[in-house]
Amino acid sequence: MSLNLKPLQGQTALVTGASQGIGLACARALAQDGARVVIMSRRESAVLSARDRLLSEVPDAAIEALAGDATSEAGMREACGFAHDLAQRLDIVVSVVGEPSFKPLLMKDLAEVRAEFTMNFDTAFLAVRHAAPLMQTGGSIVCLSSAAAVQAGWGLSIYSAAVERFVRAAAFELGGAGIRVNAVRPGLTLPPEREDDPAFVDMIAAYKKETPLGRIGRPEDVASAVRFLAGAESGWVTGQTFSADGGLDQGKGPDPMDAMFGAETMSEIRAGRTLP
Question: Which residue of 41, 51, 114, 149 lies most exposed, with the fewest beta carbons within 10 A?
């Protein structure tokens, strides 16, 4: 007699940055396919609210909420241990935490660059570093990158600069343990309710113009790719980055800088002159 088990039944997953957007959508996709999911975010109120939302959407899901900082070594060690100890296994980790900084190089200082690496690279490294020792053969780690990693575009030169090379290195080193490491490369991705925000109008227009499929991404678009890389369906895939960006990475990348900083300022920057 068939038990009709879901594809991820019995597995435990940890998703960072999971109180909203892509992280929340990834947690939902994993839970819908039967995984026990730990969602992590900095603010306790936000992550508890996200847990309640997921339980209302996937009533039979096993969801645990954990307030923690994915940029902190102690925080990621605790989160991985917490997830593992629920059922003495950790099968899937999705590192979503990251934040773009739309700012040309000549307008950044070293402290800003270091802060960007902390948010966008350190989080991926810490997820791998503290998850892998708790995983068995068949474990899967998925990191979020960005189309900016492969485009020549203004303002995103540091964002995701090192994640994809790190994923390849981690996949190589962890292959002998049977642990796969991959990445997903989104384009501009926003939930529907944020598309009408006046703060995003110019940026959205710039991205739609450069995206072959003619729209920006939704969190579910990215979560579908993450879900594939997390499960056994991709069991022969490691060290890869999958684009889930509507074809955005085929072009040079949008340039919303004039709208954000003003044409005169950007004229100075493009001429290679720093600002006073």
Answer: 114
